[in-house]
Amino acid sequence: MHIDDVIDYSEAAEYARSLDMIMSSDGFRSPGSPIPLRPVLMAPDRYEDMVRTAQRVMRLLREVAFSRAGDYRDLARAVDFEYPPVSLWSDSPVQNRWASAMARPDIGMANGVPKVFEVNVNSALGGMTQLSRLDRAFLRRADLREVWREHPVSTNGVASALSRLLCAVGDSMDRRVPHVGIVGFRHDEDKGGSEETYIDLIDELRTHGIPAVYVPAQDVRVRHGKAYAGRVRLDILLRMFVSADAPAAGIDIEPLQRVIAEDAAVVLSPEAAGPLASKRILAWITEAADRMSAQDRAFVERHIPETHIVEAPGTLGSSRRAVRERLLREQHDLLLKGNQGHSAHTVTVGRECTESEWLSLVDEALGSRDHVVQRRIETDLLPIPVYSDVHERVMRPESRVVYGPLLIGERCGGILVRHSDSGLGDVVSGITGGVANTTFRMHTPE
Q1: What is 263-324 written as a DSSP string?
Q2: Cα–Cα distance between 398 and 383 in angstroms, integer?
Q3: Within a 10 A sphere around the Cβ of 257, how many other Cβ atoms?
Q4: What is the pLDDT of residue 191?
Q5: pLDDT tens digit string along 93-114?
Q6: What pLDDT is attached to residue 28?
Q7: Which pLDDT belongs to residue 446?
Q8: Is-above-0.85 flag for pTM?
Q9: Angle at the Cα of 215 (from 209 to 220), degrees rounded to 5?
Q10: What pLDDT is stored for residue 246 in this prediction?
């Protein structure tokens, strides 16, 4: 029997509105997007396989990246990293030691096999503040608790993984119990800048023994070489925003720049993490596969879609004309992605374009050398029950799903999910009608 035949969705509207209110301070859906009525459920072996895949991809990404670059500044040059207008970059080993400590690969399932489309490595990773809230909402709901008695579930915890990382950072500073500042924006137009957005994460860190407080970016101060929020000394600052967004919001991050310049606290993640998120590194992995060990080569072929930098000449062809012709010929099997960017802003699906639109984008990419093409993967569709407040009813669309294992230090803090009706296209994001969700392991009763 399918799990949705067991769950009673008669009060779906009430539960959906409750979840929407719970998540309102940390927008998990765009207006008009549906509200999930349960988590995405996964067999424990598949859950662990996805986590292992994500961890191994991170290892390969670091190895391949630094086979071409001596340090993060070299890597930034190699991937043509675009520094934010107001930069928090530092070359300090105190900061950059932790540059890859937090990451979230984006993964799709194809015939049950995890396929890694790209890797997010930076601060403000989607899911850091959302997963715990979603987990609690689904674990505590009365109708689902009845189901969980017969179909036991479990999930990883963000705060558990994060507290271990924070303690490791603290140990490196001889601070056995580090004091942590959750750093966000405070601005009238910024919807993610209030303490309410982070309070659940802060409270959970406190229950794991980590003294944590919220501090707006502009309120951090340096005194005698140490960072402070008011009178509270801060050893670690968890940066919960992308620094490139600060100027448009009118946020002064000069106080944070001073903290970094003086190593007054360790900032997670440092801006040097940004180049590791370049799609160009996935293309390097494709190029390097033939020189890898047999095991790594087999892993790349199984889990990473073929990816190439769009340049002429290059791995796609020996001349501009050859590259152009190949990209036109294979349009319906390709995705075009910007080298840098997030939230799918620079992703174009070949089969969703007209031939003339694709040609124009290919010519632009050839002129800029700032794009990669990736082999399109037909991902598995899942029927996920959602409540549509537009149509005021329960729906079970065949959905495209992107999984995001949240890698924090040596552990996984849970798997964020984004899903949307397959009829909305291949790209799954908040701006294309996607909604955030969480993933539970569902255990088979003995």
Answers
A1: T-SEEES-GGGGGGG-HHHHHHHHHHGGGS-HHHHHHHHHHS--EEE--SSBTTBSSHHHHH
A2: 4
A3: 18
A4: 47
A5: 999 999 999 999 999 999 999 9
A6: 86
A7: 66
A8: yes
A9: 115
A10: 80
Beta strands in 40-138 (DSSP E): 40-42, 102-110, 113-120
- Yes or no: say if 236 and 166 are a contact pair by the CB < 8 Å rule: yes
Listed in sequence order, the residues at least 6 apart from 319 whose beta carbon sits closer than 8 Å to its beta carbon are 312, 313
Predicted pLDDT at 251: 78
Residue type, 285: I
Q: What is the pLDDT of residue 431?
A: 73
Tokens 């448009």 belong to 248
Q: Which residues pair with 110 in a beta bridge?
A: 113
Q: pLDDT value at position 344?
A: 61
Residues of the chain with confidence (pLDDT) below 50: 189-192
Query: Which tokens hold the place of 102?
Result: 């937090």
| Helix or strand (DSSP H, E) at 229 | strand 226-229
**Strands laid side by side in the 232-234 sheet:** 221-223, 226-229, 232-234
Residue 410 CB-density burial (10 A; 0-12 exposed, 13-18 middle, 19+ buried): exposed
Burial of 13 (0-12, 13-18, 19+ CB in 10 A): middle
Handedness of CA 352, 357, 363, 364 (dihedral sign): negative
User: pLDDT at position 192, please?
Assistant: 47
- Cα angle value 273/28/30 (rounded, 5°): 110
* Tokens describing residue 340: 């840098």
